[in-house]
């Protein structure tokens, strides 16, 4: 009987090890990224673009490398900076996410730009967003987020 008991525990341990080893690295990467306070401003009629703002914390060095939303034809990662006294916005290939540091995508700095929005964004609705995170080893994972649509006059200090 003891032999069967020992054998059963040995196979259970092996089963757990196999399950743990079969989970892809991207599963762990997605669990190690936290997205908070995701929001977008409501849009005016006919407006073709919208900014999405949020805070990201990663447990390991990583980068935000892409975004997508079913509400837009495309989504781009943008950075804003002042050049010669003029504020300029540029698409960037990635936003670095240093381990354990909050990276804020906020108006006037960094944001996700939804291009070719398919319908106006209305206050209190949600904007589904998929963020692609790349780990330092090159593995990629997707984090799904719903951004709250705030009033057209919302600022980064606006809170509910």
Question: What does this molecule look like?
Answer:
The structure is a single chain. This protein is of the alpha+beta class and 160 residues long. The chain starts with a helix and ends in a 10-residue tail after the last strand. Strands 1, 2, 3, 4, 5, 6, 7, 8, 9 and 10 form a ten-stranded mixed β-sheet that branches. The protein has a single domain (26-150), classed as PCu(A)C copper chaperone (Immunoglobulin-like). It is globular. It is built from two helices and ten strands, in the order ααββββββββββ. Mean pLDDT is 82; it is low at 7-29.
Set out the fold topology.
Elements: H1 2-22, H2 25-31, E1 33-41, E2 49-58, E3 62-68, E4 72-83, E5 86-91, E6 95-97, E7 102-105, E8 110-117, E9 126-135, E10 140-150
Parallel strand pairs: 1-10
Antiparallel strand pairs: 1-2, 2-7, 2-8, 3-6, 3-9, 4-5, 4-8, 9-10
Q: What is the CATH T-level topology? A: Immunoglobulin-like
Fraction of helical residues: 10-25%
Number of helices: 2
Give the CATH class.
Mainly Beta
Low-confidence stretches: 7-29
Order of helices and strands: HHEEEEEEEEEE
Mean pLDDT: 82
Radius of gyration: 21 Å
CATH homologous superfamily grouping: PCu(A)C copper chaperone
Total domains, how many?
A: 1
Assembly state here? single chain
Quick gist of this model?
The chain is of the alpha+beta class and 160 residues long.
């Amino acid at each position: 009987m003891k032999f069967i008991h020992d054998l059963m525990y040995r196979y259970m341990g092996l089963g757990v090890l196999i399950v743990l080893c079969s989970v892809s690295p991207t599963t762990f990467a997605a669990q190690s990224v936290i997205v908070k306070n995701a929001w977008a401003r409501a849009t005016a009629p006919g407006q073709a673009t919208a900014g999405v703002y949020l805070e990201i914390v990663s447990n390991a060095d990583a980068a935000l490398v892409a975004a997508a939303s079913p509400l837009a034809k495309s989504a781009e990662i943008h950075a804003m900076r002042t050049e010669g006294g003029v504020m300029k916005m540029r698409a960037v290939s990635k936003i670095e996410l240093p381990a354990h540091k909050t990276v804020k995508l906020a108006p006037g700095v960094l944001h996700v730009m939804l291009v070719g929005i398919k319908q106006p964004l209305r206050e209190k609705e949600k904007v589904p967003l998929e963020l692609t995170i790349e780990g330092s080893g090159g593995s990629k994972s997707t984090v799904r987020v719903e951004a709250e649509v705030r009033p057209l006059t919302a600022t980064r200090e606006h809170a509910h």
